[in-house]
């Protein structure tokens, strides 16, 4: 703090002693000494949210006549029948054949265990996934068929 006071007093003493300094130099010296701290964030509120109105939203309810009610219900029932689609029936469990087991053994011999997607590309496993191949391989190794 003393350093700052020394600088200010030196600037003031220099400006008083030198008679040759012009007004522009005096303004520069005074602005250098009297600078305020810069603020990182602006304190002005630029975009303040204001509600459109104080009123709460209002919903008006109108009673339907019997004819309108029947008409709307019939429209909904026809739309619902169009949107309803029966789910596809699940396929039953398909057993692993000896040929599929042999293809799996060949694929594991060629690509190694754990490369189920590559093994799937080599042979046709009738819609089975890599996880199904992994499970079958685990069963084969457990039963010592490999």
From TrEMBL:
SMART domains: SANT. Residues 1-31, 71-99 are annotated as: Disordered. It comes from the Eukaryota. Residues 73-87 have a biased composition (Basic and acidic residues). This is Telomeric repeat-binding factor 1 TTAGGG repeat-binding factor 1. It comes from Collichthys lucidus (Big head croaker). Residues 88-145 form the HTH myb-type domain. The keyword Nucleus applies.
């Amino acid at each position: 703090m003393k350093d700052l006071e020394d600088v200010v007093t030196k600037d003031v003493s220099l400006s008083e002693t030198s008679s040759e300094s012009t007004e522009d130099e005096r303004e520069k010296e005074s602005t250098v000494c009297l600078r305020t701290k810069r603020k990182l964030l602006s304190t002005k509120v630029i975009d303040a949210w204001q509600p459109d109105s104080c009123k709460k939203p209002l919903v008006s309810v109108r009673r339907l006549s019997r004819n309108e009610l029947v008409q709307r219900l019939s429209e909904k029932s026809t739309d619902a029948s169009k949107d309803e689609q029966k789910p596809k029936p699940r396929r039953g469990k398909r057993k692993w054949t000896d040929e599929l087991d042999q293809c799996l053994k060949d694929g594991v011999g060629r690509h190694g265990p754990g490369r189920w997607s590559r093994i799937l590309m080599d042979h046709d496993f009738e819609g089975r996934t890599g996880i199904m191949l992994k499970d079958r391989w685990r069963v084969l190794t457990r039963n010592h068929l490999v």
